[in-house]
Amino acid sequence: MVDLAFKEKDWATWNFMQWFVKEQIEEEKLALELIDKLKIAGGDRATDESLFTLDKALEAAADEVSLPQEATAENPS
Q1: Is 42 left (phi over 0), alpha (psi -120 to 50) or beta?
Q2: Burial call 40-52: b when 16+ CB within 10 Å, e when fewer
Q3: How many whole angstroms from its chain centre is CA 48?
Q4: What DSSP string describes 19-50?
Q5: CA angle, 13 then 21 then 63, to 5°
Q6: What span, in angstroms and rounded, lies between the C-alpha atoms of 28 and 22?
Q7: Alpha-carbon dihedral of residues 39, 40, 45, 48, nearest 10 degrees?
Q8: Which of 24, 15, 17 shows the shortest CA–CA distance to 1?
Q9: Which of 24, 37, 29 lies closest to 68, judged by CA?
Q10: Is pTM beyond 0.70 here?
Q11: In this model, does residue 11 exceed pLDDT 90?
């Protein structure tokens, strides 16, 4: 859609899609980080204590996700 909007010179859609893709990259990165933390806590065999510790760590985590400069839609990590 981004490429099509660019080819069609639909700048309003292209601008919106740039924002949308950036948001998706941020959400994918956040989800992957949460999965990694859950794996460290023990995954589906996590103890109540490790899940409690994970919950406290997530509560204290920042709301914003910083992205590496080289992140793209094709390579979100």
Answers
A1: left
A2: ebeeeebeeeeee
A3: 26
A4: HHHHHHHHHHHHHHHHHHHHHHHTGGG--HHH
A5: 125
A6: 10
A7: -120
A8: 17
A9: 29
A10: no
A11: yes
